[in-house]
Amino acid sequence: MNIYITLDYEIYFGENHGTVEKCIIYPTSELIRIANKHQVFFSFFVDCGFLLKLDEYRKKYPQLEGDYKKITEQVKLLSDSGHDIQLHIHPHWEDSYYNGEKWIIDIKRYKLIDFSETEIADIVYRYKKVLTEITGKTIFAFRAGGWCLQPFSKLKKAFIENQINLDSSVFKNGSFSSEHYSYDFRTAPDKDIYHFDDEPTIENPDGYFTEVPISGIRNSPLFFWRLFFLGRKNPKLHKPLGDGRAMPAPGYRKNLLTKFTNNPASLDGYNVHLLGRVLSKLLKKKREHMVVIGHPKALSPYSIKKLEQFIENNKEHHNFTTYSKQFLKH
Ligand SMILES: [Zn+2]
């Protein structure tokens, strides 16, 4: 099995966005420690909109200089050490600003499709460029902020123009919609890799784009009750390392606690405990690619420990790899 440990590298987007140190730098340094020890590589989808805003505002507010430096240095270090750096777009940064004390985050236009095609082309171009400049490597893979990339037909042109030809945002049977979010992957093929053209849930063998979906998992409400209970009982072990709070997604939590839900296989907090189960299921189905999503900000001491165990138990038999290592022709 090719196992992709992937991380969306970002702060929080609600009113309490947290600090760069605790949401990104420290948890990522823990991942680097594990990767070095076990000689494995991870993929990081870097929130480039934030990076560009930091660069813009650090001139006026020197207190942002430290955050900018820490992020660019860590991204460069990751890339130089063989980890994959790829594109993550949260376009709401276009409408957000720093007021001298904190980021004022405006999520009215949360999805890339909330922008015009001209704006989309400009965003994809600039966001990719900043990563190319830092890493000096080929940026060709994408994960949508909040999984929102539909209707993809509106993004397609900008992606082709910027040679972004691999997406890893879809997860089987996922769907959610609220004022700001919207994704529906319920019709996606039950495959671990396929091609598409206009819509990432519709396979087209001749399509320009490759989809390497995030592996899916079906959770019972009981799982999330246990998760919230453990968080209360032993916050030291289960509290996320990030010091912000997720932006509200009305109805999302209630769904998790009352129904069976389809979720992406995840490293975040207690979710990591299911990785072994996801792997055996995929092996039974004779799959070749297992993609796991995580967020440095949402990792806990528990999830870091469990991730390390998962790697230790499986590194001899499976291939912990990255998008570049698998898909980029050298
Ligand atoms: Zn994100």
CATH-level-4 superfamily name: Glycoside hydrolase/deacetylase
The parts where pLDDT drops under 50 for at least 5 residues are none
CATH class identity: Alpha Beta
Which CATH-level-2 architecture? Alpha-Beta Barrel
Q: Strand percentage, roughly?
A: 15-25%
Give the helix level as a range of percent: 25-40%
The gyration radius over C-alpha positions equals: 19 Å
Distinct small-molecule ligands in the complex = zinc ion
Strand tally: 15
Question: How many separate domains make up the residues?
Answer: 1
Number of helices: 11
CATH-derived topology:
TIM Barrel
N-C termini distance: 22 Å
Secondary-structure-based class equals alpha/beta
Query: Mean pLDDT across all residues, rounded?
Result: 95
Order of helices and strands: EHEHHEEEHEHEEEEEEHHHEHEHEH
Multimeric state of these chains? single chain
Shape: globular
Index terms:
330 residues; alpha/beta; binds zinc ion; 15 strands; single chain; 9-stranded mixed β-sheet; two-stranded antiparallel sheet; 11 helices; TIM Barrel
How is this structure best described in words?
The chain has 330 residues and is an alpha/beta fold. It has a single domain (2-327), classed as TIM Barrel (Alpha-Beta Barrel). It has 11 helices and 15 strands. It has helices spanning 20-38, 48-57, 65-80, 117-135, 156-161, 221-233, 235-238, 252-258, 275-284, 301-314, 323-327; strands spanning 2-9, 43-47, 84-89, 97-98, 103-104, 141-144, 166-167, 175-177, 182-184, 194-196, 209-211, 216-219, 261-264, 289-294, 319-321. Strand 6, helix 5 and strand 7 (166-167) form a beta-alpha-beta unit. Helix 1 (20-38) packs parallel to helix 3, helix 1 runs parallel beside helix 10 and helix 6 (221-233) packs across helix 8 (252-258). The chain is globular and about 55 Å long. It starts with a strand and ends with a helix. The mean pLDDT is 95.
